[in-house]
Automatic annotation (TrEMBL), chain A:
It holds the Pfam family TOBE_2. One of its GO terms (biological process) is quaternary ammonium group transport. Belongs to the ABC transporter superfamily. The keyword Transport applies. This is ABC transporter ATP-binding protein. GO terms for molecular function: ATP binding; ATP hydrolysis activity; transmembrane transporter activity. Residues 5-235 form the ABC transporter domain. Gene3D superfamilies: 2.40.50.100, P-loop containing nucleotide triphosphate hydrolases. Keywords: ATP-binding, Nucleotide-binding, Transport. SUPFAM superfamilies: MOP-like, P-loop containing nucleoside triphosphate hydrolases. InterPro entries: AAA+_ATPase, ABC_SmlMolc_Importer, ABC_transporter-like_ATP-bd, ABC_transporter-like_CS, Mo/tungstate-bd_C_term_dom, P-loop_NTPase, Transp-assoc_OB_typ2. GO terms for cellular component: ATP-binding cassette (ABC) transporter complex. The keyword Nucleotide-binding applies.
UniProtKB/TrEMBL annotation, chain B:
InterPro entries: Bact_Polyamine_Transport, MetI-like, MetI-like_sf. It comes from Roseibium limicola. The lineage of its organism: Bacteria, Pseudomonadati, Pseudomonadota, Alphaproteobacteria, Hyphomicrobiales. Keywords: Cell membrane, Membrane, Transmembrane, Transmembrane helix, Transport. This is ABC transporter permease. Residues 67-255 form the ABC transmembrane type-1 domain. Belongs to the binding-protein-dependent transport system permease family. CysTW subfamily.
Amino acid sequence: MQSAVLFKAVSRLYGDVRAVDAVDLDVRAGEFFAMLGPSGSGKTTSLRLIAGFELPTAGEIEIFGESAKGVPPYRRNVNTVFQDYALFPHMSVRDNVAYGLMIAGMGKKQRHAKAEETLELVRLPGYGDRAPSALSGGQRQRVALARALVNQPKVLLLDEPLGALDLKLREQMQEELKSLQQSLGITFIFVTHDQGEALSMADRVAVFNQGQVQQVGTPEEIYQRPDTPFVADFVGSSNVLPAELVRELTGVAAPASLRPEAIRIGQGEAHAATVNSLSYTGAVTKLGLQFRQIQLSALVPAGMPVPERGTSVAIGWDRTALHMMGQGK
Amino acid sequence: MSAYSAKAPLGLKIAAGAGLAFLHLPILLIFVYAFTTEEKSYQWPPPGLTMKWFAVTWNRPDVWEALYLSLQVAAISTAIAVVLGSFCAAAVAKSRFFGREAVSLMVILPIALPGIITGIALRSAFHLADIPYSMWTIILGHATFCVVVVYNNAVARFRRTSGSLIEASMDLGANGFQTLRYVILPNIGTALLAGGMLAFALSFDEVIVTTFTAGQQATLPIWMLEELVRPRQRPVTNVVAMVVVLVTFLPILGAYYLTRDGDKTAGHGK
């Protein structure tokens, strides 16, 4: 499959800080790709490198097979939805959406028609005359999306676009973005620090930490078979068992991840642990367990008996639930 | 809320009235004397009222000359200030470089310094560089404080303008020039206009720096100062004073309204 965006050992340094550190990436054409990581992990810098707002200190970026070297942002067939939307406050919604077309030299009538068409696509028909300031956060987000999409970019970059929205609106926009991407067939590259968002929306996810890519894979791969302790911990707060303990349990000296939902609690299980915290979250109760030298978290579904704090319980798991990892970077 | 909505006590009203009178009565007096029939001294009450001084003023070539020079000086130094002030504001607000705070302080310094210091400094500088005093030396002198006014207005607006607007414009295909024209200027335009108007008003009635940087030329305020010494046709000075009040007051009023609305639109983007 063709690459939409290719990173070849790309680094971006700020003084001594390696914001992006020798990253290799291959985003395929037409996929919904998420860059996931905590703040300062290099995911936004990577996005800005693709847009052309930052230049790599080392390495090379290709966009649809062509080197992006020396190509300014305004010559890249890539558009961005900014975190703060960056709508032009002195223009109407219509002029905001039509901005790229105006710059490209399209006539007024034609570009206004195009803008209206795109506003319909993002479900804001008839909002063209309003000022951006008269819109809600969710609506501004849609205008920003329309403004980027109207230019029919080959790649759409989204920088934490849902961060400022409330939960309900965020879930709705997640679905809309996903279906929009599928119907348009444009490559979406989506930056987020919310692992739930990345897992539910993306075809593939790259997990960033300290400027490096820890793992690239489908949401299932990332969740079920994390490559490194960081990925296991960051994506869905998996338990990480240190290599020492894993050697005692299995004879293999490597850190392993163990999902909280994979831990069974009940009589007849092989290991002993002590309950030292309980938190009720609705559908499940989260247990904090002291198991040998480490702390494990486990889940008890609603309706099942919940052990009391301070008591000893027997715990166990399937052999396959223990997923061996590399040491990580 | 209740503390402010209650009716002001009588004493406070009288004090406020007295304060306003103290501020504005002298200005009103200037206006009244423009209509007096007594031309040698300012006599109160005016012995009679007449409109003839307007005609006299209109026919005095020296008034026209001074007015023309003042307008020229104000217009050119404002133009210089708008260009330099906005560039400087853009650099300080939009990038980080070594000595940024120092540059910011140094730009503002001329307006903080007493005018007389600026005046003496410029005069000795012109003297050292062997620059003859002319309209251009006055313009240079005025530009030093006009730049500050424009800079202050522009830098405040730049700081409120989100940096991603410029990136968004570039992202959508606009090059630097197009971004300047379609995004940056419309966003800082009213701030520049307001700064320019204030600078114009400041320059138009400036006396101190002008005294030090002018040669034989007299701007309107300098002309008025000279005129006060002469006991003939004194009300002409008052007619000119009314013109000066109008020429300086209107831009200041305009600047006030422009930045007020501008603040609203600038705040909206966030």
